[in-house]
Design brief:
Three copies of one chain form a homotrimer.
Chain A lengths: L3 H11 L3 E3 L14 H5 L2 H10 L12 H9 L2 H4 L3 H14 L11 H12 L4 H9 L1 E5 L16 E2 L2 E2 L1 H5 L4 H11 L6 H17 L5 E5 L11 H10 L4 H18 L3 E5 L1 E2 L13 E2 L9 H6 L5 E5 L4 H12 L3 E3 L9 H14 L18 H21 L6 H20 L4
Parallel strand pairs in A: 1-2, 2-3, 4-5, 5-6, 6-9, 9-10
Antiparallel strand pairs in A: 7-8
């Protein structure tokens, strides 16, 4: 339960424009076209499926209105989850929904209300405005189009999972050839292609290079380029090749002065029969010690780090950020993005990390509508934590607590990643 | 400190009949015959020993009254523990004890009071009634007698540690031969025997198959049946054989429609010189990723999962339950069954798992007297959590919070495991 | 926010003399000579460096006043950290500082105020008195001088990292030869030398043997003394040799009746370019199961255990202390010595460990001035926890809660380690 003081801090935080340093927004379709675009967010489809909904009920060939009914039919089972709260807040804030629960009986009216709002020509502008969104970082593939949108609002970021883990796949190679004019058949070819890509991204105002990594990943320079070249030529994958391609990226981040955004700890395709984007899990036996060589080798590169496991891995993140100038804790990622984990993780970061390094939150959103409820969840927890741990025990007065909150919510992100061009 | 609201929820939860989905109750001696039967619960003997009591003082040949005196002589050192609170609540509720501390000076009077109560002919009925116990699940060996007790109250469950880990031991083989009429000398023999056992258990109203597993266990189908047959014939154990026997059990759970209750993470005999049942510990480096292949291979089987390590492994349990429809978080097991771990683990489960999958609590009790204080501990934490995280921030009204609590305490267990026959 | 009750407990705890069972105090220079001696504590240098200060600004050849200015120039970024609170409390309590923030503009006046106070001839006595310090344990190398100081106040303890991990280094061998008159070229030589050392330390009033250990360390008796002898003769290190040397220490602790203080989980030199003493980190994948053989083999030896990772490893420590009579949880170490980790770890220890085994806190201080603010941080958390978890829910009355606090803060340490001679 929040105190009056926490409420006051929260209200102040709501007034701060959102500087969202990681999302999956498509700048060519940033907002929903319909309720279906929102309920298809993997949080809802996977929870509805987990609660008992067969995947067939939400298959792509199902009528959108039916799919929404199917997902909402499970919402009574989800009302305890954070994801449910986000959707309820969207329904109320964006679609004029007046109820205090979301149920299957609301499906049709909500679907219609959303259809009306989302089809307004200025819907995106409206959401940007009522979200008080300053900018949101994108997740761009190396061959994404980087023009045709406002890059001060939608900030390009180079996502590199494909290069590091899928260089052996024909599709990646074809796309790479198109995008760079080089092959993927040797390290030197890839270097040449990477230069093309980094130059293009930096010119387009990119503000980070990003990647998600499995729990066992260990970055290190190649022992043998010959091995990597052989693997590339043969179109094979290997841990050593992935490690080397990752290392190349770090070198380019250094040269092009881009932060290298590491999202550490996801196992892909653990439940291959799951819903779209609802198949990945993790192994909590993960450690940043695997990254010590990297952090030492690239003191000039800033590494905003997200971890998937709360608790001990977050304690590592706190401690590594306390010791390494170039390691910064970044947001609360995915399975750790629930209040039960944000709260203790945040509290620990506040206790051990210099406050100019705290990159508080990012939305990870697929549609702009989700940014506000997610940020409000975080702002509420930040306000509670600052009130309880700092202002009430008189370690900070309200003004300084507000300053701290502002740095965490916006100032540090802007300084570390740079203002959008 | 609990709010009035939390107290109100707690009172409502106390009125819900207990549907206890895991215990070690002996249906032929479900309640204590004396105080000694209660103080010999391993929680007390191991804590008393840890606090300084020599094992000789509680050996089986010591006079029961003396043994109680010995254990109570350490109770001043235990008054901070959860186990102490349970015993104090039993003493007050069941034996008319009026004090607010339990000390060695109480030994004789409490021993006598317990002797009087426990020797009443209707003692078990009385405890069942004042516990408001609807049913309690048992832990039956494959050769346990399943008749001669009320299987609506005492629900049989097949415990399978012996089969999976001790098939090489002469004693297991003799018991198996008697119970099934088959040998343990080949996989096909074991299949034949398992069919006999599952048929007998299902006919007797069994509601689950259960097993406890060490941290490093990795279920997978055998690469080589020949290897398993050779090991069985030679009476040898091997990880591959255990994995294969476990896999056979999952196949039988599928065929016989029984939930497969997994209790993951215990190392047996870590302190072999410890008290009876007080020798097992764990390795916190444990992950559900080892079970991904199992969960994928048996979508029709329900897996209620208990984990021994709080925190990161509980976060895995939350996340796996969020993604896999057939994985459900089950209770708070053993070393995690203390408020300091129940509270954060529960909070996380509430934030991430559909509420029709939350199997809140089980007693793990050896005597019926322990069910009530353990459930009250959990009910209190559940009430506090629902009040603080849901009702006070207006995410749920009181009525819906009560409904959520009822599902967690009783409704889900009844639906997932089925009503006793 | 603390209740009135918690404040009352806290005030009572402040009156208890401090029995500090682990520090790095130099008995020949126990207090600071200047502000520089305090700001050079690695907590401040590493946090200032992490926040952006180049190491050159705090190099040893920099003028002390300049170095203090440099470190304080980063203090605005550190005001959220626990370390900052300690320094602020020292400035106010010991140096008459009246502000409520510490900033670079305070550097000169604080430097001068400290210079005046620290140069008083009775400065150490004054700090001992206003800290209400009963005694503080030291960290002595095997060749440290053990005379010339008051061993009732400064209690010798034998630190053994050098022997176990650096027996191959020429410097260690030379020092060993000087201190013991034996070589390090065979196990039997080392046994002879160890006897000399243990006799000298026990005669000087030593109260513990101590060591810090990396996450992967596994104590076990040597499989082959021949291997160890060969490694010693060749001046080589090996895990088996370290394990054997460690085992020898446990044997000596048994013979000389010294507690063996284990500090488990540190990786040294993870950031070799970091500030002095600010280069070590950890791997959260650490387990006490590696120590099971040790705990079983030496039931007569008391093992106070500190762990570097909060959460799961602390849960192991709780559970191992609950089961093994000779394992005791000891303090909150280093990266876990922040309120966000002390609070949950303490709460769990209180719920599961007999209270005569709870060794609450030690300062780990390098200068006496830090003992009081660190203890006050812990006392506050202990008071809050006892109030919330025990007194408010009526599990203990105030008097018994105070008794429990006294045992945790002082009584257990005195009994387990023994009164200073």
């Amino acid at each position: 339960m929040s105190s009056e003081l926490a409420n006051e801090l929260f209200e102040q935080f709501r007034a701060i424009p959102i500087f969202d340093t990681h999302s999956h927004i498509d700048p060519f379709a940033p907002t929903a076209k319909s309720l279906d675009d929102l309920l298809n967010y993997h949080y809802f489809t996977e929870l509805a499926h987990s609660a008992g909904l067969p995947i067939a009920a939400i298959a792509t060939d199902v009528d959108p209105r039916e799919r929404c009914r199917a997902i909402l039919s499970q919402f009574a089972y989800l009302e305890n989850t954070s994801a449910y709260s986000w959707m309820l807040e969207i329904a109320r804030k964006q679609f004029g929904f007046a109820g205090d629960t979301l149920r299957d009986s609301d499906a049709d009216s909500l679907f219609d209300a959303a259809a009306t709002r989302c089809s307004r020509p200025d819907w995106t502008d409206e959401v940007v405005r009522n979200t008080n969104l300053e900018c949101v970082f994108l997740t761009n593939s190396f061959d994404d189009r980087l023009t045709g949108f406002d890059s001060r609002l939608f900030v390009p970021c180079l996502r590199t999972d494909d290069l590091v883990f899928h260089s052996h796949m024909a599709q990646t190679r074809t796309r790479w050839q198109s995008a760079t004019g080089t092959s993927m058949e040797s390290i030197s070819d890839i270097r040449a292609g990477l230069r093309v890509i980094f130059e293009r991204f930096v010119a387009a105002g990119a503000r980070a290079c990003a990647i998600s990594l499995p729990p066992g990943f260990r970055p290190e320079p190649a022992n043998s380029f010959a091995h990597c070249d052989r693997a590339l030529l043969a179109g094979q994958s290997s841990p050593e090749l992935s490690a080397q391609l990752f290392w190349l990226l770090a070198e380019h981040c250094r040269e092009f002065c881009l932060p290298f955004d590491l999202m550490i700890g996801v196992n892909r395709q653990v439940y291959p029969a799951g819903v779209f984007q609802g198949q990945d899990l993790f192994d909590c036996r993960c450690s940043l010690i695997e990254y010590a060589q990297l952090f030492n080798a690239f003191p000039e590169v800033t590494f905003p780090v997200s971890v998937l496991t709360s608790g001990p891995v977050n304690q590592e993140l706190v401690s590594y950020s306390w010791i390494f100038p170039n390691v910064l804790p970044h947001g609360h990622w995915w399975y750790s993005n629930v209040p039960a984990y944000i709260e203790p993780d945040l509290r620990a970061r506040l206790g051990g990390v210099p406050n100019n390094k705290l990159l508080g939150y990012y939305s990870d959103a697929y549609k702009l509508e989700f940014i506000l409820p997610k940020y409000n969840m975080y702002r509420r927890l930040l306000a509670d934590t600052l009130a309880r741990d700092f202002v009430e025990p008189r370690r900070l007065n309200v003004e300084r607590a507000l300053g701290l909150g502002r740095a965490i919510l916006r100032g540090n992100g802007e300084r570390v990643f740079g203002r959008p061009a």
